[in-house]
Structure of Carboxypeptidase B:
Amino acid sequence: MLAFLVLVTVALASAHHGGEHFEGEKVFRVNVEDENHVNVIHELARNTQLDFWKPDSVTQIKLHSTVDFRVKAEDIVTVENVLKQNELQYEVLINNVRRVLETQFDNRVRASGHSYEKYNNWETIEAWTQQVATENPDLISRSVIGTTFEGRAMYLLKVGKAGPNKPAIFMDCGFHAREWISPAFCQWFVRESVRTYGREIHMTELLDKLDFYVLPVLNIDGYIYTWTKNRMWRKTRSTHAGSSCIGTDPNRNFDAGWCEIGASRSPCDDTYCGPAAESETETKALADFIRDNLSSIKAYLTIHSYSQMMLYPYSYDYKLAENNVELNALAKATVKELASLHGTKYTYGPGATTIYPAAGGSDDWAYDQGIKYSFTFELRDKGRYGFLLPESKIRATCEETMLAIKYIANYVLEHLY
Ligand SMILES: [Zn+2]
């Protein structure tokens, strides 16, 4: 019996997701139609431990929208009773988080090393940044733009044919640790760039005339934590004086209306804005790099998931961006291009009204630095799997997103400033 228990324990520990097991946990989607519904969910959030998937926190719930949250096994009966008593319409998106978590590794290509159609852990991605740069010296160079809270090097890949005074597009992935499809896309983008350069005229032209700065994972510490301890982790892993809670939301930590709206000043919250703007070494490194390269960077793209949206400034305020009409037209054309491959529908618009107000985001900050084309992508899906999108969806998701990024890049080339 003891031997059996040891075996089971070893098997569990060696699974992809160590730590939290999520057995019997569910993800609910609740329709919110009136103020009473909002109050019911606030009450639930006070009395049970809800993990908000969409929106990012209980304070961001809007009328006439849906709210997705994960519920601990022991709270499910309570949550269902409260929803029923108050006549809230809801559905169960995920019936057992643990099962979906196990099936996300559903790609049959089970190579042990790096794969573009698998979720790669940080160690594998780190080795890949070195390898892809070494194998493509005429197209890729690797640099380090800073170190994470836990002391890891933040690698940046510069992708493009060498040339004088080239304009550039900056793209980052992996802000929020649990949004695994995001780093997968940055890797896919680099691979497609080198694979199609010299073979496909559009990519060849883009890389001849533009440089792409690709940051494969911004929040490396958090990403590692999702692989080792808690798949549902979102924030960085920093600690700050005065609290025992860990982590800051990197996308609430930029100096753009910092912490004024849609962000929390409580270190224990998932949308904690940090003790100050750029308090996180990761966000500071990104901001420093962009400030140092402002003359060449013409577009800023940040890749998140989920909900299939393309957002542009502003999120920290309901005011419209100065070139709002242009951004709207560009977003409209881009999502049309994205949908052309697999029919995947995206919504688009200014962040504050399209998703919800949230201050301290990197897209708003980059825009206010003078980068006219600044977009946040929320990749697949719309909630069927949420953050647990299976590996078998990586290819289609990345293929369609690739079309969107190339479309924007081409537009930027035609509208240099
Ligand atoms: Zn995100």
Observations:
- Residues 56 and 271 are 7 Å apart (CA to CA).
- Residues 175-176, 179, 304 surround zinc ion (CB under 6 Å).
- The mean pLDDT is 94.
- The domain at 122-414 is CATH 3.40.630.10 (Aminopeptidase).
